[in-house]
Amino acid sequence: MTRLLIVHHTASPGTHELFEAVRAGAATDEIEGVWELGAIVAAEIMP
Fold first, then answer.
1. C-alpha count within 13 angstroms, C-beta hemisphere, residue 3
2. CA 26/CA 21 separation, integer angstroms
3. Is the pLDDT of residue 8 over 60?
4. What does the domain layout of the chain look like in residue ranges?
5. What is the 3-state secondary structure (H, E, C) of 2-33?
6. SS3 of 37, please?
7. Is the Cβ–Cβ distance between 16 and 10 less than 8 Å?
8. Contact criterion met (CB below 8 Å) for 36 and 8
């Protein structure tokens, strides 16, 4: 089984656009067997 792992940090609108483009490309009907497992992880870094 082929796997695709997309790890992202969308700190700016530009990187969020890139993430959305990669996700849309991976979900195209031309590629079979791709499913998405989403997780939102938020962390606050304390000084």
1. 4
2. 9
3. yes
4. 1-47
5. CCCCCCCCCCCHHHHHHHHHHHHHHCCCCCCC
6. coil
7. yes
8. no
Residue 22, amino acid: V
Q: Per-residue pLDDT tens for 27-43?
A: 888 877 777 666 555 55
Q: The whole model's pTM is what?
A: 0.60
Give residue for tokens 């195209």: 28
Q: What's the token pair of residue 14?
A: 């530009």
Contact 11, 19 (CB under 8 A): no
Residue with tokens 């082929």: 2
Distances (CA, A) of 46 to 1, 8, 9, 11, 12: 40, 21, 18, 18, 21
